[in-house]
Amino acid sequence: MRVVLAAGKRGHYYLTARALRKEGVLERFVTGLYFDARTPWQRARSRSDPELRGAPVVSLWPLEGLYAAASSAFGRRRAIMRAYNAAFDLATIPFLRGGDTFHVANTYALRSGAAARRAGMRVVLDQQSVHPLYRREAIRHAYGRLRSPPPPFDSRTDERIARELEQADLILAPSRFVFDENVRAGIPAERQRVVPLGVDTELFRPMPRVRQAGEPLRVLLAGGIAPAKGVVDLLEAARRVEGRVRVTLAGRIAPGMHEHLAPYVHLFDHLPPMPQEDLARCYHRADVFCLPSYFEGSALVVAEAMASGLPCVVTATAGSAVRHGRDGLVVPAGAPAELVAALEALAGDPALRARLGAAARRTAEACDLASYGRRLVEAYGGSQCARAAATA
Q: What is the DSSP string of 211-258?
């Protein structure tokens, strides 16, 4: 088995490349901007990986350079993103040689996936988020709670994703939530495998946490600061227990979000996007991780927080491995009152935080890179019969 992996942005795919390399099946990793780990440019740390040194990485850096320049000049426009996705998709085709399995992230898989199938390769689509039909429902719900109209939906990208899902031999769903929503959208269960994301349990690991007497509960939310992440729900919960909780938001603030954050500026601190090593230190400074998202494929930040020994408060739609009462707390999306109850329970019970955090670490250890690689290879083996079973 020889696997060509392709993904235009980092996401979790550096970890996927690591896992496949350790399994001895990685033929080639096609990605966007990438620096060899020996580079002295500290600002490039987030686009390199020392564990991939010497790996067969193909960097399509001119494409991502053009994308970055266009985004800087004209803003983060959907047309620019669509153009980058389509260009990366086409540029991947020459690098399919030597592989029998094409593992590709959705939005980059339409032309390259068709070319791979013509070459006799199995096409394994890595689904990054929930099905577009559910995502639209969730976005409407999230913006409706803020009494704001949702932004226009990107129908062209949604159509592209739907076509990629249809042509794939196998779909890797990162969570049961994604799997179930795919089934609801008409995708047969036989063409899917649930493969939870792998996590770097060496970089993200528990460290001693020192708390001052009377210090508020330190709650971290990492990721895009946007309505669908449930950020305002978390801040509203913090307001209701004011003085007992301090929130840190780590990530890029989405356009138009500042007006929704303004009433809560006294309740949170904001940190910009940062390299993984710095993010690991953020987890060590927190007492609780919270992601009350309206939808996720499976947020890697939750797995990282669990690996760091943090109890997590998440929604059932966050696509996480958190089990309510065992290694975290699960609440409904769009329910600040439920968040209040969860945060109050954790703020008032250090023993509960310790128990849930220790269990979270054990759950993360079962999703380390070695087990992730094994699950991927097992899923690839099933892809040979997936489409035949679906069409029988």
A: --TTPPEEEEEES-BSGGGTHHHHHHHHHHTTTSEEEEEESPBPTT-H
